[in-house]
Amino acid sequence: MIRNITTTLVAAVVVFALTSFAADQKVIKKVATPHTNAANGQEMYENYCAACHGKAGKGDGPAASALKTQPTDLTTLTKNNKGQFPSLHVFHTISGEEGVAAHGSQDMPVWGPPLRAISGGSSAEVQMRISNITNYVESLQAKQ
User: Fold this and answer.
1) Using N-to-C axis directions, what is the helix angle for 41-48 and 123-139, rounded to 10°?
2) Can you tell me the mean pLDDT for 114-135?
3) What number of other Cβ atoms are within 10 A of residue 47's Cβ?
4) pTM of this structure
5) Contact between residue 53 and residue 42 where contact means Cβ atoms under 8 Å apart
6) Where are the domains of the chain?
């Protein structure tokens, strides 16, 4: 009798734990999957970058003052790179493949892992997202 009660109790705890875990995963996935169009670089920039870099890319976003290092003015990347937009550098910075000394202890979130998560692990979609953000940052360049 006690064995049956113990077995039933253990089974109930396991079912409860698995149900709770599944529910938590759905909540996590819903929170971690913003409704951001992967093909829209501007929309992704506004969701992932503008808080620090500012909507216009000048490094004056609402979170900028809370950071130890002022975010880069993204509108001057071409000017500061002898007139050539450093697209590969920007791409690698977003993906986290290239560290930036000014970021110190990861003040700037490295977006490669979050973009992989919201893309369901699809390498092609992650590449597209990062390329589209990179292209949008290029469109923010100050006219020379």
Assistant:
1) 90
2) 84
3) 15
4) 0.67
5) no
6) 1-32, 37-139
Place of tokens 């290239």: 98
Residues 53-60 have a mean pLDDT of 96
Instruction: Map the chain to HEC letters.
Output: CHHHHHHHHHHHHHHHHHHHHHHHHHHHHHHHCCCCCCCCHHHHHHHHCHHHHCCCCCCCCCCHHHCCCCCCCHHHCCHHHCCCCCHHHHHHHHHCCCCCHHHCCCCCCCCHHHHHHHCCCCHHHHHHHHHHHHHHHHHCCCCC
pLDDT of 11 over the 90 cut? no
How many angstroms separate the first and last alpha carbons of the chain? 84
Bigger pLDDT: 32 vs 85: 85
> pLDDT tens digits, residue range 88-101?
999 988 887 776 55
CA distance to 52, 86, 111, per residue, from 96 (Å): 17, 15, 7
Q: What is the mean pLDDT of residues 50-62?
A: 95
